[in-house]
Fold each of these.
Amino acid sequence: MEYTNFDYNECLETAKAFHGDACSGIKIGSRMAIIGLEAIGIADPKGSDRKDFMVYVESDRCASDAILAITGCHPGKRTLKVLNYGKMAAVFVNLKTGKAVRVSSKNKDGDTVTTREMIDREPRGDDYLTSSDEELFDVKEVAVNIPEGELPGKPARIVTCASCGERVMDMRDVTVDGKFYCVPCAFKEQRYYSEKN
Ligand SMILES: [Zn+2]
Ligand SMILES: [Zn+2]
């Protein structure tokens, strides 16, 4: 694999150091990161270009660690958004030019369901060293509408939840009858935790 601004093996080492090993997901994610950065014209992601782009990843598995490690984007900087659709895909957005590109892993099997036993039988790691970008990935230009509340930088406003009294940043609040609520108070039945008494 030859890329203009990145060396695959160097990137793989960076991703491996962050993740702990170079599993298949790290190999795939490393290539996705390089392809995405090149496609949106980012050559120095951790240096002069670091404030000029964002990445959305569509799973919370290994590949996302590679993308984080190579792009330098991460959630605390608000430059990496993890949308867990369970998909091997990521969208790279150049905030200066507006160009956005989605890189997704091609479905080479076409199986409707691949079980864990099938996955165990066919380790795929080497495909990601020998196959071309075109064989492995779809790369498509997309349009991304990034709400103000999701951009890096200081919060536009902070409100206090009328129910729990906790503060809510980044327009994640919900207005009901003119009052501000946090999401867990507004949609109590959907909370991921329940309180113990
Ligand atoms: Zn892994
Ligand atoms: Zn609340």
Amino acid sequence: MTSVNPERAARIAALPFDFAAQPKAPVRACNLCGGDRFVVITHRDRYGYPAPACACADCGLVFLNPVMTPEAYGQFYNGSYRPLVSAYHGRLIDAKSIQGEQLDYARERAEFLAPYVEGAGFTSLLDIGGSTGVVAHHLSQTFGLNATVIDPAPLEVDEAKALGLETITALVEEYEPDGRRFDVVGLFQTVDHLLDIERTLNVIRALIYPLGLLFVDIVDFRAAYLRNGSVEEAVKIDHPYYLTEDTMIAYLRRAGFEPLRADYAADHLHISYVCRPVQTRSDLLPSRDGVRALLNEIRYVQNVRRSV
Ligand SMILES: [Zn+2]
């Protein structure tokens, strides 16, 4: 059971954001495998919102279903997202306050990327979901790259612009690259927020140079529910998707990316991948045994009794 924190619930209830009233659409086909055999695994998210999550019985992808429409997510990121996260944590989290931890994050990611970027002759970086631009700015300074940030949140893009970065205010799913290409593409703490991962990875595959690099990191869904002892606490409306090592690697290989190195972050929650473009493996999916093991583990976490 999810333990209810009444002060947190009151803070969230006091927000003007009304999740139940948001327009939503049902997910008819799994974004990873195209299947339609789903298992409803939760009925509420960590905020207490009625936001059910499903697992695909064929590939193990976990996702919100129904999910807010792109327009509703666009509005959510334009003023509701950071106040909601602030209410959840009980402290102010906004475009300015996140910059310190973003810089620590950027330094760690630069170290991870350095063996693949230094000396490679790269000149351009596209940071998808780049928020306030702190990460893109640090990487551009460290590696001498011209950085471009795409993000749907206008207040965050303003911060990126102030750092002198090229900015595009949009959801990446709406981005038209018009033949433009990049050496390094980053999805820094972003893939779980996407509305269509398959489409986004295909867009990236088309706009990355053949010898370029893709960085992506996930909130490992298994780590998130194991650490909380709660599947509901690992689900939140800000993340349409909940990835595992198996589903992220399947996504990458199907889109034509080979992970060169993975990194279990020091927080024991995130996993980073640096990848290079290769032939697509459009048939590749997580094994049935892996999917069964995931569902069994979810049932175990939902029912194991903990001392209180
Ligand atoms: Zn599937």
